[in-house]
Design goal:
5-stranded parallel sheet, Rossmann fold, 5-stranded mixed β-barrel, flat, OB fold (Dihydrolipoamide Acetyltransferase, E2P), 485 residues, alpha/beta
């Protein structure tokens, strides 16, 4: 065993284990820096981990510190960390003993001033512009007179009242309000859901023809929800034309760049959405007057041209004189032409008659007579054959009727009994005593009445007979009765 050195045996330093020292340092750091505000640039941010926690680094020109945002805290953050964004983080300093590192556990985070927000905004704007979301070719034309207008805004602010008042003044329209928060942590998610919800509506009564996303003025932080990627992408994907009216005229957000039309104020958005009804009525009346005047002038022009053309035509007598003369000349020639036509037909008939001979007519008459005789004989044969087929078919049907009929059964000695109604009697139980009956035999009919005695005999036969018990030979004879033996 090695001996201790004198210096080791004489020291009075406290001996710690690694874990004791690590946790002692952790306690010291947390006691000294319980809650701090730390300014730095976000570096190494890759989004939430699979566990939902976020890990990144805060740095400045000379140092860096590890940062942690727990999952429960990350869901409540108003501003999410962005790579390269300068932020002010509030949290507590602690250590991670397993790696001998100190770190800040962040409770809240916000951009380090307007400059940081503007830098993040420009960075996000550049990214979305590279994807083509702001291209003019993607913008859709606004409907001239929308049937339904969907408004995405707060239901309690002055914005919705201004829009409704302006629409009432210009052209009263049907408005569907989708209430959302226009400021705060849930603003972006609610606005994006409202735009997507209007587009997903399948009913014609709930799907608007135009969407207005509106909010009053405010600071850059107040309007930040309309700069979120979620809102910009929802507006870009909207199949319904969209007007952005966020902030005042000098304010601008990313939704303004992706919208189909950007209005400087919510009131201006309502003015752009619909025309002025009174101006439309005046324009329609003006167009009607102009159309009637144009039609009237066109008719006058055509009438003038027709009269001018009519004056250039020759007179009626001049047009009909030559045809009238030709008609008169033809009428003078008509009697002679009729006589000549009749004479020509008579000559042709005489020539044809001269070629006819008596033997030709006799032969033709004989041939015709023979043909008629043949046709008459064929007709007679066909008629006799048809009658024979019908007679055989009738005989077969009569034989079948005779075979299946009940008269053959009667001929064998049976009889058919009917009641007063003429219905066939099939059983004796169906006949009441004294009932009138009709009996049919093979050679005629006779009347009869049911015998009541037959009914009583039937009842007697149907009544069950009690069996008399047989005498037991072993039974002792009655002592009071004598015996014949």
């Amino acid at each position: 065993m090695a001996s201790r050195s004198p210096q080791a045996t004489q020291t009075n330093l406290v001996e710690y284990t690694v874990s004791e020292l690590a946790f002692a340092l952790k306690q010291t750091v947390e006691d000294a820096y319980g809650l701090v505000r730390l300014r730095g640039e976000v570096s190494g941010y890759r989004g939430p981990h699979a566990s939902g926690h976020c890990y990144f680094t805060l740095k400045d020109e000379k140092a860096c510190i590890e940062a942690v945002v727990w999952r429960s805290t990350f869901a409540r953050l108003k501003f999410k960390p962005e790579e390269g964004l300068e932020v002010v983080a509030k949290g507590k300093i602690t250590t991670y003993p397993d790696r001998s590192k100190y770190q800040i556990v962040i409770d809240s985070i916000e951009p380090a001033g307007v400059g940081a927000l503007m830098a993040l905004l420009e960075q996000r704007k550049k990214k979305l512009a590279e994807e083509g979301l702001f291209d003019e070719a993607r913008k859709k034309p606004l409907p001239f007179l929308p049937r339904i207008i969907g408004v995405v805004t707060s239901p309690t602010g002055a914005v919705i009242r201004d829009i409704l008042h302006r629409l009432e003044d210009r052209f009263p329209s049907h408005v569907l309000l989708w209430p959302v928060r226009v400021q705060g942590e849930t603003c972006a998610a609610e606005v994006a859901a409202a735009i997507s919800g209007f587009n997903a509506a399948s009913s014609i009564l709930s799907r608007p023809d135009l969407i207005i996303v509106a909010r009053g003025g405010g600071s850059l932080e107040d309007l930040w929800g309309f700069n979120e990627e979620l809102v910009v992408r929802a507006a870009s994907a909207s199949a319904i034309p969209l007007i952005s009216a966020v902030g005042h005229e000098t304010d601008w957000t990313l939704i303004d760049l992706v919208a189909d039309h950007r209005a400087p104020t919510p009131t201006a958005a309502a003015e752009r959405a619909v025309p002025v009804r009174s101006e439309l009525l005046i324009a329609v009346s003006t167009f009607g007057v102009r159309g009637a005047g144009t039609l009237r002038r066109a008719l006058e022009n055509w009438r003038s041209r027709f009269l001018a053309s009519a004056r250039g035509l020759p007179r009626r007598d001049n047009l009909l004189g030559l045809p009238r003369q030709r008609l008169d000349a033809a009428s003078h020639k008509l009697p002679r032409a009729l006589l000549a036509n009749a004479a020509a037909h008579r000559s042709g008939l005489e020539r044809a008659g001269s070629r006819l001979r008596p033997h030709i007519l006799t032969r033709a008459a004989c041939e015709g007579r023979e043909k008629l005789i043949r046709l008459d004989r064929a007709k007679a044969r066909a008629l006799h054959a048809g009658l024979d087929r019908a007679r055989r078919r009738l005989d077969n049907q009569a034989k079948l009727l005779s075979t299946l009929g009940y008269h053959n059964v009667l001929a064998r000695g049976f009889a058919l009994i009917r009641n007063e109604a003429g219905a066939m009697v099939r059983s004796a139980s169906a006949v009441q005593p004294g009932a009138a009956l009709e009996i049919e035999f093979a050679d005629g009919h006779i009347g009869a009445h049911a015998d009541p005695r037959g009914a009583k005999e039937r009842e007697r036969l149907e009544k069950p007979v009690k069996e008399t018990p047989a005498k037991d030979p072993r039974r002792k004879p009655d002592e009071k009765q004598g015996s014949l033996l």
